[in-house]
Amino acid sequence: MSTLSIRQLAKEYVAGKPVLRDISLEIEGTGITAIIGPSGTGKSTLIRCINRLIDPTSGEIHFEGKDLAKLAGAELRAARRRIGMVFQEYNLVERLTVMENVLSGRLGYVSAWTAFRRKFSNDDIQRAFDLLKRVGLADFANRRADELSGGQRQRVGICRAVMQSPGLLLADEPTSSLDPKTSVEIMELMRDLARENNVPVVINIHQVQLAQRFAERIIGMSGGLVVYDGAPDGLTQDTLQKIYGGEDWLAT
Amino acid sequence: MNAVTRADFFQPSIWKRLGYALLVVYVIYAAATLGLSWERIERGVGYGAKFLAGFFPPSFTKSDLIPGLLESLQIAFLASLFGTLIAIPLSVLAARNLMPAFVTWPMRVIIILCRTFHPVIVAIIAVKAVGFGAMAGVIALTVASVGFVGKLLAEAIEEISKKQIEAIRATGASFMNTIIFGVVPQVMNRFIGFVAYETDSNLRHSTIVGVVGAGGIGGTLFAAFQRYDYDFVAGISIAIIALVMLGEAIQSYVKRVFR
To answer: Is-contact A164 A101, C-beta < 8 A?
Structure first.
């Protein structure tokens, strides 16, 4: 049985103008699945529908025995705890310390009173610190998040997502705000952490080369539909043209 | 090539000119109806000088100076504390990015009502309601603090970064946890500034609500005025200035600590 099963998902922000038309996908295993496609084709919307930061118009999203599309309130929050998310602009709480940002991955598990007093369990704190050590930021634990560079912030963002003990990791263009070298490092980190924690990753990504290099499976979207679903080496010029349209940009 | 002139980009506006003209007319009309004139000012300077001469030497010896000052201080402190405690939940509920319109509207109305009347007017009502004394002053300045802190804090909350909130929500955090980890860190700095400013402002206002019988040094000041006890008026005024300057110093210190 697959980890995540999306059936006939559709989203219309404005009635009659669907952004996602009819998406059906099965995500399983532990590898990286990369979603590529032109800007405005609904990649971000798809990712955000999965953890319900955006409500889909219709369709089903099955994850760990529940249809996420139908959940609300406490049940929805309980499901979200199991889905980590990494953002394009890191979305760290800038005025909190690095440690607090990583520990915020546990907010779905603790009461408001506990969160207010920062009374996280020693296990959580140990795990947060080990994760920071794992990504090479142990020395920054007490620094404020806004003192970090882009690559460092994204590593903290990844730690926060992994800290949730997720059954699925989502990433919305995690490398789009980073330089090429840092981008590769972040992709490596996501791949390795996903493997170590035995969790599948779904990544929206603009850089086709990065997608081909790190993903085990590529989904090409265009106009709110899946137009390619297969191995990275199956991405031919024809397929890319089908996904992004035009042809001049492919000329070398 | 198309020839262009200044008139293509900067068109004269008849409405703007009409506006300026109306402003000038209104200023002349207002000054005339209120009876402003130079002679009265010239005469007034003479009276004022005589009045000020009575201030010297200032007297600090009357026994009701210190208790009056302390009462003002207590009124300011308690009103700031109560006002802030009430304003915090009110402003969260009034923030349009956190709450639906049917919640924010009533909260906004409450905040606006608290800001509508000057503290002295609220103090007059409070004196009628609970009688003479410091309690009326505390109520009046609490109302003012709710209005001030509530409005500014609600605005600060509305200006926070949505992205940070989105990330916290994505972890499965409850509404309260999202407030604690997503909203509070983003507004804390400004909140401290508002409260410090409000405390300072309450300190100044607490010296005046006494005039209408709501406790504090203002009552003492007013009584001294009515007795033509001008050297004591001067003493009280100097004491108030010292108190306000102390408030200013504490405010800037607090802001520096929490930066």
So the answer is: no
Q: Is A105 left (phi over 0), alpha (psi -120 to 50) or beta?
A: alpha
Give the chain B residue nearest A80 (alpha carbons): B172
Helix (H, G, I), strand (E, B) or coil at B12: coil
Output the CA–CA distances (angstroms, integers) from residue B119 to B40, B126, B147, B148, in the order listed: 31, 10, 11, 11
- Looking up tokens 């532990």 gives A30
CA proximity to B170, closest of A244, A214, A79: A79
d(CA A43, CA A37): 7
Q: Do B181 and A93 touch (CB under 8 A)?
A: yes
Which residue type occupies B202? Answer: N
A47 is in which domain, residue-wise? Answer: 1-82+168-252
* Interface check B222 vs A, CB under 8 A: no
Number of domains in chain A: 2
Verify whether the Cβ–Cβ distance B180 to A53 is below 8 Å.
Answer: no
pTM assigned to the model: 0.83
Supply the ipTM of this predicted assembly: 0.92
**For B72-86, what is each residue's pLDDT tens digit?**
899 999 999 999 999
- How far apart are alpha carbons A243 and A106 in whole angstroms? 38
Domain with residue A60: its CATH number is 3.40.50.300
Q: Write down all domains in chain B, each with its CATH number in brackets.
A: 12-53 (no CATH), 65-257 (1.10.3720.10)
Contact partners, residue A153, CB within 8 Å, separation at least 6:
A90, A92, A145
